Amino acid sequence: MAETSIRPEEAAHFGAMAADWWDPRGSSAMLHRLNPVRLGFIRAEIDRHFGSDARTLRPLEGRSALDVGCGAGLLAEPLARMGAFVTGVDAAPELIEAARTHAGQSGLAIRYVAGEVAALDGCFDLVTALEVVEHVADPATFVADLSARLAPGGLLVMSTPNRTPLARLLTITLAEGTGQIPRGTHDYEQFIPPEGLAGLLGAAGLEVRATRGIAFSATRGLHLSDDLRLNYLVAAARAA
C-alpha cells in the first residue's frame, strides 16, 4: 500500500500549468472543453440523488462538496455557485494559489488546501474527482480515501479515460502529439476501464449508480454518450 496517493512528478507537471489554467486557449484548453459536459452529468446526478428541483440554480444549497484534484478551480467554482460549501484539494501548491486568487476575483468563498485527500478531516455530501485517478500512485487506496470522505447519503462522481485503443489514439497520440494537451500528461498504463473502477469502488464500500461516456464527433464536439470508449463518468454511493 502506498503511503501517499501523490506522485510528485504529476504534481510538478500540473503545477507548471498554473499560470494559464483559466485561459480557455491555454495549456488547460481541453479541460475547459470538457467542463460543460462534465457539469451536465454532475447536475443530473445531483438532482437524481438528492431529489433537487432541476429548475433551481442552487441544488447544493446548505450542502458540502469536496473537489479532489481541483486544479485552479474549474469545477469548484461552479459547485460553489450551486450553493455548496466547497473545499478543493490539490497536490500542486501552485494550482491552489491560482485557485485562491481566481475565487477571490470571482467573489466566491471556497476553501482550498494543498495536499492530498487522505490528510483532510470531515465528510462531505458531494465528493468529486475528475480526471484524477489515472494520475495517482495507488488507485485502490485513493478510491478508499474518497469513500472515507463521503458523508452518509452522499454522492461521489469520478471521471477518467477508458483503457482502449481509441482513448490512447485521441488522448495521447493526437491531443498530446498536436499540443492540445501538454506532452506527458497521460500514461496509458494508468488508464482504468469502467469495470476496473467499479471494482475499486465496490472494494471501498460503494456501488456505481450511473455511468456515461464522454464522446467526440466532428458535428457535436465533446458530448455525453452511451459510448464509453474515450472517457467516462461514474456516479457512486454507499452500497445498500
Strand content: 15-25%
Roughly how many Å apart are the termini?
27 Å
CATH homology superfamily name: Vaccinia Virus protein VP39
CATH top level class name:
Alpha Beta
* Alpha-carbon Rg, integer: 17 Å
Biggest sheet strand order reads 3-2-1-4-5-8-6-7
The number of E-state strands comes to: 8
Number of helices: 7
Look at the helices and sheets and give the structural class. alpha/beta
Name the overall outline: globular
Give the % helix: 25-40%
The biggest beta sheet, please?
8 strands, mixed
Give the oligomeric state of the chains in this entry, treating copies of one chain as homo and distinct chains as hetero.
single chain
CATH architecture classification name = 3-Layer(aba) Sandwich
Task: Give the low-confidence spans.
Answer: none
Keywords: Methyltransferase, S-adenosyl-L-methionine, Transferase, Ubiquinone, Ubiquinone biosynthesis
Pathway: Cofactor biosynthesis; ubiquinone biosynthesis
InterPro entries: SAM-dependent_MTases_sf, UbiG_MeTrfase
Pfam families: Methyltransf_23
Question: What features would you describe in this structure?
Answer:
It is a single chain. By secondary structure, this protein is of the alpha/beta class. It has one domain (8-238): Vaccinia Virus protein VP39 (Rossmann fold, 3-Layer(aba) Sandwich). It has seven helices and eight strands, in the order ααβαβαββαβααβββ. An eight-stranded mixed β-sheet has the order 3-2-1-4-5-8-6-7. Helix 5 (139-148) links the parallel strand 4 (124-130) and strand 5 (150-161). It is globular. The two termini are 27 Å apart. The mean pLDDT is 94.
